[in-house]
Amino acid sequence: MKNILVTGGSGFIGSNLALELQLRFPEATITILEDFRSSCFKNLLGFKGDILAYDCADKSWLSWAKAQKLDIIYHMASITDTTVLDEKKMMHDNVEGFRNILDLAVEKKAIVVYASSAATYGSMDRPIKESDAGHPNNIYGYSKWIMDQLARTYNHKIKVVGLRFFNVFGPREYYKGHASSMIYQLALQMMTGKRPRIFKWGEQKRDHIYVKDVVTATLMAHQAKANTVLNLGTGQATSFNEIVDALNEALGTNLKPDFFDNPYSFYQNFTQADMSYHEQMTGFRCQYTTREGILDYVKNYLLKK
To answer: Which residue in the list 140, 142, 288, 297 is annotated as catalytic?
Structure first.
């Protein structure tokens, strides 16, 4: 862990990861590769490493990389906005960027830990196992599915571990804008005294995982017993009514939901990660329930802004 590259390092998850790496490995050389399309330098205030302002899919940055030592690459960069409908752009940036990372890792004999997504599963009404993937509802999920297939072709060359993030929330998601978590968006509404707007009747459930647990799991991923792709959620589904209750507790409010009709026919009413395989492969267990994560997030970050 002496020479570390983090792609997408000023993004939501990437910035939390980069700053935790800096804290845990103060003697390491940490470099961030970031094009700042959907992030901001303010997420990295306090970061002391180097930053390369490039898109992963742009091969010109590889001339820098060829002269460097690399032990591990955390590949967090990608287009994550599911409203992007340009299929060529989504596939090019996400898949070809990943191909560059994998080829570089082979040359450097580096470990790769990369961000996949629960969007590879599509719609399911039960706890989801890793073997359920391959039925995405959108081009974003499809690009992540193809990344998973690409990673498999490198299994005999390098250590590669993917993490299928479920619904992540926590500090430094502000610059995601409309793509930020519903927990964050509902908290902002309630902090101004507004009733939280959720679809009727708030019983839709998601597996919401706190970013601190995501960072811990990402740092443990290279210990996986084999090259693989792992679910990353809490293993529990939490309703939006329960989220509103937790936010009221954290904020000291008593705001009732403002229910409205769901206009989306393709909306996922349920997500829940089966975390048994992940625990078997790395020993990881979440330290925060969704409620505990919300309390920590609101009290120690949102209310202190």
So the answer is: 140
Active site residue 140: yes
Two tokens at 103? 């080829």
Give the single-character DSSP code of 121: S
Question: Which pLDDT band holds residue 264 (cuts at 50, 70, 90)?
Answer: confident
Domain ranges of the chain: 3-168+209-234, 171-206+237-273+289-304
Phi/psi of residue 259, each to 5°? -80, 140
Is-catalytic flag, 157? no
Per-residue pLDDT averaged across 105-133, rounded? 96
One of 3.40.309.10, 3.40.50.720, 3.90.25.10, 3.90.226.10 is the CATH number of 171-206+237-273+289-304, namely 3.90.25.10
Residue 111 half-sphere exposure toward CB, CA atoms < 13 A: 20
pLDDT at 265 over 80: no
Residues 6+ apart with CB under 8 A from 167: 118, 181, 182, 206, 207, 208, 209, 233, 271
CATH domain 3-168+209-234 topology: Rossmann fold (3.40.50)
Single out the catalytic residue among 89, 129, 176, 299. 176
Give the DSSP letter of residue 193: T
How do residues 39-60 score in pLDDT, each as one tens digit? 999 999 999 999 999 999 999 9
pTM tops 0.70, yes or no: yes
Q: Which pLDDT score is estimated for 83?
A: 82
Q: What DSSP state is assigned to residue 230? A: E
